Fold:
Amino acid sequence: MSVRAKALCLKVMCEVPMSFRPLLFSLLLSVAPLCAAAQDNWPDLDAVLFPQLAQGSGVVEAAFFLPDRPTPSQAREAIAIVYEWIQGSAGSTRIVVGHYTLDHPPLQFTFRGHVSNLFGHSPRDPQFLPDRIELTMTTLKDGEPRCCPSGETRYAIDRTTQQAHVLWTR
Structure:
C-alpha cells in the first residue's frame, strides 16, 4: 500500500467511532490490493507530470491525474492538477493544471499546455466531451471562511485556448 493510501487510512480510522473501527479496517484491507493493482499499470506519473506542473517550490502537497479512461492502454487524454506549496507562505498552495494527450504504443504523454482560470480543491467528475472537458471542483461559497469550502463549481475547459470557464456554481 502506498504512503498516501496509508495516511488516508490512518486519517479515516481516527475519525471513525471505536465501535466501527474493526469493520472499517477489514474493509480497507480487502480493498487496498484492488486499488494498488489498478494503479500498477500507469507509469510513474510524478516523473511525467511534475516537470511541467511543479516548478515553484518543488514541494507538492497533492496531485491529481484525471484520464478520459481508467487504463493506460485505453486512455487518450487527461487533465493533471498539482497543488504546490508557495514558498514563504503559511501553508498556502498554488494550483497548476495541465492538459495532456496520450499516444500509443508505447504510452507517451504529450503536454498540450497549462489550463488557466480553474480554481478549487478535490477535482472530480471529469467528462471528456467532443468540444470541451468538464470538471467539478470544491470551491468557496460567498461568506465562507477560507478554511472550509463547501460549494461546488463546474468548469468547462476549451481544448484550443486551454482556458476554463464556469458552467455553474452552487
Observations:
- The longest strand covers residues 93-103.
- The chain has two domains: 3-40, 45-169.
